[in-house]
Amino acid sequence: YPSEFLLQKITEENQIPLHIHVSLSLQYVAGLKGNALVEFFHNNIAEVENEELRHLMWSSVLFYKSPDVEVMACVLLSTKAIYFLLDDTLIRAHEHQTDFWIQESSDCENSSFHLSCCFVLKLNDLQSVNVGLFDQYFRITGHSADHIVACLTRDSYNTHAFIQQLMAVLSLLARTPSPEPVDKDFYSEFGNKNTGKMDNYELIHSSRVKFIYPNEEEIGDLAFLVAEKMDGLSNLQSLNILLYVLAFQVNHVEGSVSNRNLLQPKTLILTSSDLFLFDEDYISYPLPEFAKEPPKKDKYQLADGRRIRDLDRVLMGYQTYPQALTFVFDDVQNQDLMQNLTLDHFGE
């Protein structure tokens, strides 16, 4: 340790997504290669001497205690814990919302010394991992509200790679075996005897950590919700969700220092007749066991919806991934697509 393959792999993975702006401290981390990165991990992050760095990933993260603050993080998986190196500037900006961050006053605010916060989730405290629809994100759950983190990878490859590495690392943990028999019958494990439908696709790892994947009913619920917004429940049978992707809506801010674009996280859902943007709660559902009341917001909240037949053209940018798409709709007569068209439009 570390092998040449590992050094090459973490060097390739150590790249901040192009569309994300991060603090100088995280830019420094992203500039490290190979051995320098491993040494940085052991000197500044690792909590015990004999732990090994196994995987590195850059991802947006959400915390259960502050569901509205999406923070960019460098996620480091070792044989002992998962470390989230966080953008300190963003945390300070949202200090009033993130009451569980303990901020210590430092004397190096005006110097060239840059700090990052590091959130640690020990593998021994890990209870379950919920994988989101189409592997666009996953949620890691520990033993309390402080230990629930969602990683919005927006990329099925990154999600899959992290889950595979996490399973491999968990296999090294020495935990007492669970009392129930290992060889459970598939149908009694997952099946509901009344309906014959699968309740949940749940994989219990040898370390007793649950890996929970979405089942077909979740897509059905989403299709029902979309049909409701379309006022076309009669078409529910023929409604197909063609695409579900976590994206950003770009709001261009004129007059700011750099005329920069503000990226607002949205869930884009495409059906055969409509294009929808939803504000989705990625962190609160499914409800953790200790939750005493449901979240204040629904899982999906409609932000915008347009008919495909009103789509005039799609403009594509020339930059590399992630690609920017501009949808131009020709729907001037009906600006508010969600309004009820049976209303009397000739009244006041």
UniProtKB/TrEMBL annotation:
The keyword Amino-acid biosynthesis does not apply. Residues 113-178 form the PLEKHM2 PH domain. Keywords: Cytoplasm. This is NISCH protein. Signal peptide: none annotated. One of its GO terms (cellular component) is endosome membrane. It comes from the Eukaryota. The lineage of its organism: Eukaryota, Metazoa, Chordata, Craniata, Vertebrata. GO terms for molecular function: kinesin binding. Residues 241-347 form the Nischarin C-terminal PH domain.
